[in-house]
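Severity: low
Component: inverse-folding endpoint
Summary: output formatting inconsistent between runs
Steps to reproduce: submit the following structure tokens with default settings.
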């Protein structure tokens, strides 16, 4: 069977990684969470107090960063940081870091390398437009803003993070704004992407739709 590349893009907390993970499992493909890479870079910048306005510091910091995935969990310089990169501290800064041109070049190069054998599902903001413009299937996932904020809020409460609904909603709106208005590869729907609005779909329903689209492409 043909191995294809599946790009899943969309705003924050639309459930991209849930769908991407389930789809990859069903197709026996590799799953890559590109957002985790930007989050891990942000964590390094925070830990090492890197000045985002200083090009040389950014360049040096990137030369010290090694990212890899082990069982779908991101590792930063050999340490599993999958959990800590989801903290509010990282969430509040990640869009600013991800907007830096050097950071994007660094991450995109690694993402393209990971997809060279195809058979991959990658989710993010610019996967269908910049990372894999030749992806066979591009899904642009959307959901109403309040529904997205509620889902994220519920998820964070489960992890017993002390946070209000308003803080979550404000963070999502802030990230969406920066992600879609930045100069380098902003979040935008690729012209050949199919829109999937999951506001009123269950996880099983959205998986079924995406899987059907994928199989149509695999069968060519
Ligand atoms: O998917 P996420 O919320 O974990 O992503 C974290 C941030 O990383 C998001 O606010 C924007 C950025 N990002 C990006 O700029 N490009 C990607 N391909 C993936 C994420």
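Observed output (run 2 of 3):
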């Amino acid at each position: 069977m043909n191995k294809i590349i599946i790009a899943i893009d969309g705003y924050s907390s639309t459930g991209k990684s849930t769908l991407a993970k389930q789809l990859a499992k069903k197709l026996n493909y590799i799953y890559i969470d590109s957002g985790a890479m930007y989050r891990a870079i942000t964590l390094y910048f925070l830990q090492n107090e890197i000045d985002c306005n200083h090009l040389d510091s950014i360049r040096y910091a990137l030369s010290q960063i090694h990212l890899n995935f082990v069982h779908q969990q991101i590792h930063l310089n050999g340490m599993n940081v999958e959990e800590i990169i989801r903290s509010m501290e990282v969430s509040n800064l990640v869009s600013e870091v991800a907007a830096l041109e050097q950071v994007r070049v660094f991450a995109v190069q690694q993402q393209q390398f990971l997809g060279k054998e195809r058979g991959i599902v990658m989710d993010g903001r610019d996967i269908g437009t910049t990372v894999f413009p030749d992806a066979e299937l591009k899904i642009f996932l959307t959901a109403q803003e309040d529904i997205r904020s509620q889902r994220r809020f519920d998820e964070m409460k489960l992890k017993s993070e002390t946070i209000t609904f308003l803080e979550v909603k404000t963070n999502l709106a802030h990230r969406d704004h920066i992600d879609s208005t930045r100069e380098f590869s902003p979040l935008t729907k690729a012209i050949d992407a199919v829109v999937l609005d999951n506001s009123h779909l269950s996880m099983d329903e959205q998986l079924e739709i995406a899987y059907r689209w994928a199989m149509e492409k695999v069968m060519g």
